[in-house]
From TrEMBL:
Phylogenetic classification of the source organism: Eukaryota, Viridiplantae, Streptophyta, Embryophyta, Tracheophyta
Sequence ranges assigned to domain Reverse transcriptase Ty1/copia-type in this UniProt record: 4-104
Matching Pfam families: RVT_2
Protein name (database record): Reverse transcriptase Ty1/copia-type domain-containing protein
Organism, as annotated: Mucuna pruriens (Velvet bean)
Amino acid sequence: MNTNLQQFDVKNAFLHGDLEEEVYMEIPSGFYSHNEKNKVCILKKALFAQVMISLGYKQSQGDHTFFIKHSPNGKLTILLVYVNDMIVSGDNEIHKLTLKEKLAT
């Protein structure tokens, strides 16, 4: 695979964008008492993973900061996120350009 690494600084507006629909999530472990185990949270802002999934990326179950996107022609794009910084690699230049444009909005 012929690839390079790129670094992006992610804008906070992109990380914490408004949601268009009502989204529920399980309460993270450690944030509830025993009598609240069956309750859920309503998200007020988008989670970064939601945005990446909406762009076609799959989130790693082993490392939730690692995302990958395969294209039908066998090319892929890989990204790793830390706070508001992102490292992007892969051999799909169209995916990388689309991601860069999306992050700039």
